[in-house]
Design a protein that fits this description.
75 residues, alpha+beta, 1 helix, 2 strands, extended
C-alpha cells in the first residue's frame, strides 16, 4: 500500500459501534472503564466523520468541526 505524500494527521477513535446496535457501544465503553493513558499535547479537538458505506474501497474521512482548547470559538 502506497503512503500519501502529506503530513500525518493522527486521530484517536474512542469507539465504533454497529449502526442501530446500542448494546455494542455499551460493551465497548465498559472495556475502557477506568482507563488512563499517557499525556499528549493537543491544541484542538477535531470531530472527524468517516464513510464506510459497505463499499470495498478505503474509508474516507472528513473534518466536520474543531474546538480549540484555549476556550475560543469552534472552527
Amino acid at each position: 500500500m502506497a503512503l500519501e505524500d502529506r503530513p500525518l494527521r493522527s486521530r484517536l477513535t474512542l469507539a465504533r459501534g454497529r449502526r442501530g446496535d446500542l448494546s455494542s457501544v455499551a460493551e465497548i465503553a465498559a472495556v475502557f472503564a477506568g482507563f488512563t493513558g499517557l499525556p499528549w499535547p493537543a491544541e484542538r479537538l477535531p470531530l472527524v466523520g468517516g464513510t464506510t458505506g459497505g463499499s470495498p474501497g478505503p474509508v474516507r474521512y472528513r473534518d466536520i468541526g474543531a474546538w480549540p482548547f484555549d476556550g475560543g470559538d469552534r472552527t
